[in-house]
Amino acid sequence: MKYEEIIECQFSTMKDKELHFHQEPEIIYLLDGELTVSGENMSHLLKKDDFLVANSNVRHEWHGSGDLLIGSIFINYNLLTEMFSGEQIYFLCDSTREKSEEYEKMRYYIRQIFNYYQTTEGQAILLRRSISYQMLYLLTSAFIVKKGMSHYDSMRGISDERMSEILNYIMSHYQEQITLQELADKLYLSNAYLSKYIKRNFGLSFLKLVNNIRMEYAMGQLIYTDKSIIKIAMDNGFSNLAGFNRTFKEIYKQTPAEYREEMQKKAEKPRQEENSEEILERVEQYLTRNKVNAPEEADLTVSALECDVKQETSFEKNWKRMINIGPAEALLQYDVREQLLYLKSSLGFEYVRFWNFLSDEMMIFLDENKTKFNFTRIDKIFDFLVQNGIRPYIEMGFKAKEVYQNVHKMLIDTDNKYQLEIIEKNKGFLEELILHLVMRYGVEEVKHWYVELEKNSIMRAYVEPEKYFNSFEIICGIFKTYVPEIRVGGAGFCLNYPDEDLKVILEKWKKRKIQPDFISLYSYPYIMDEKLLEAGRNSYASDRNYLRNQIQEAREIMDEAGFSAELHVTEWSNTLSNRNVLNDGCYKGAYVMRNLIQNTGEADLIGYWLGSDLFSDYYDTKRILHGGCGLLTKDGIRKPAYYALRFLASLGSYFLGMNENAIVTYTERKQISICCHNYKHFNFRYYLIEEDEIEIERQAGMYEDNEKLQMTFRLKNLSDGKYQVKICSVNEEFGNIQTEWKKMGYYNELTLEEMNYLRAVSQPNIHISQKTCSDGVLLVETTLSPQEIQRITVTEMM
Which residues, if any, are the signal sequence (predicted)? Predict the structure, then answer.
């Protein structure tokens, strides 16, 4: 039986391979030793289990050392381009430059392919092909280079415009009898110059370059078609069969007929004969020593969780401690205050974070020569907060006003000049400020406050650590002189910022006289390495566990640097865009609940970005919903993300258990409280469109699947008897303002009565039932639709 493979494997111990290129994209995976892969102005050092993609027609070579073992996967060029309607596609995939869940999945797939490569059973062949397509789906989803990006041509092995013109011309005319003179005339160059240019840049003469390109097309026809050899020769630009045979033999050391016969025999032979027995034995040993484990993924169909109410432990709700609201001046606005008070009363957070505290809008003008200030507006803000039991979390830096349409485009960008250095010249002002706050609110109040000094904002210019440390020490030293217990920290680190090496900064900080009470972290899933972005990588990081991985990485770095300070995630969300419709719907609710459950206990504080859409109100926000990041719309209507936090806020103080989809707690009143979700991550479609271009009606097509989730909770050691089970659900049908707005025809000019109706109907569904506990065990079952979140309360009936 003949079947066509989309991938082929080769294993090698060859330490040096000269400069070469081939039509098939190649995944070079290092199983053992060290390997330097270079070419086309790049060089990569691969260590064990590193891998990269060498794109079609890109020249590369390698030089290895140690007990070298290399595995290569060649992707069938013809099949791949056929799937993409004939378009050549290129990849930027290099595990030496990045770390993400996608690379771990690629490793898993590659090693699985190696594992099944030598097997001949029909089921193993099917499994290998299945894994191959899964790997290619991931490769073309997460690592594809978009056509039109600045480095698209470099992925093709083209370093300048002239090389591109030469290749384009040859590829367009390779079936014809083209000459060096014709190409020279087209480029307005002399024959001699063009000949030397081609030799220098392609490493081949003009004729060999043309024949190599012809051979790339001819090879596929020899292997995968029944065309006669003379027809293949004529179809690919050779004037006669003798010339085709001669050229073929020069390159491949055999005639086309011999090559075709060999490939046909090879396809029928067991795969063990494709590589030497010695090399394949080493591959077998490698796979035995390095067991292939599947990446951890939730069961998307059925999930079960067993909890024992007699094995409770206390836990802190790190997501309840703080919420972001906006710049300081926003807290002077009536509607912002109203929404903040509502969030305080319903979610129970302790701190509110705001910034641009030292700004002209707050009547504070810092200057090197003459600083002017008036504390009236500051007093109005702190009076309001203190009187309502809300503690300030003050970001003392100079954060710009940024409202993103998408990650590449800002609607509002009022950049504040870099003023940290001015702080050094305003020690007297800082003393007056802290003295004023202590006199007005008392040490017993102020000592509970947090003061954060941001180093550089999420998308702004890099700030040298030494400059930052100087400013931080001045603020911290002065504030703690008057209020020793006030907590001062920073610096708003962003681990995906290419110039931000947290380990190096913390090691330097550890040597300073004054160190922070907490380290603050920003977490937005974007790739910010300009080299990667220019090369065509999508700016959105596709890691579904991005927040957890960032927190764990920060914890590890802090431990290595000897920092015992608290870790605060002061800003986090799935997007910077305030024009992304997913912010308004059920996806965001499931995203928030999943991440907060997953990161229970991982950080000391996790502050959601952000409380209200009033932050991003602008000329284009006349619509009821505009895709803002807020929990509440600008009109104060609750979104699914709000309900995610509301459900989580109702959890008890005693932890019973959790898994990927749920967390179970016990309250002081002996009530069991459960939060669960059916989160669905994005598929490739999300990464092919700008965030502000997503249409409300097309959201469902952007997720990995649309399967429902069946959850079963087995609760042990309860008293036998009747229990009330109350399930509050937010899904596409209930509690989703997008659905309710759709029923109103997406109409914007609503009356006050209609707005009140919209506010009233955007409520969760409530279902109440009775269950019987027997032999101390109570089973609670529920089904969740895609992106649905639920709060389940189980109460004993008296």
Answer: none
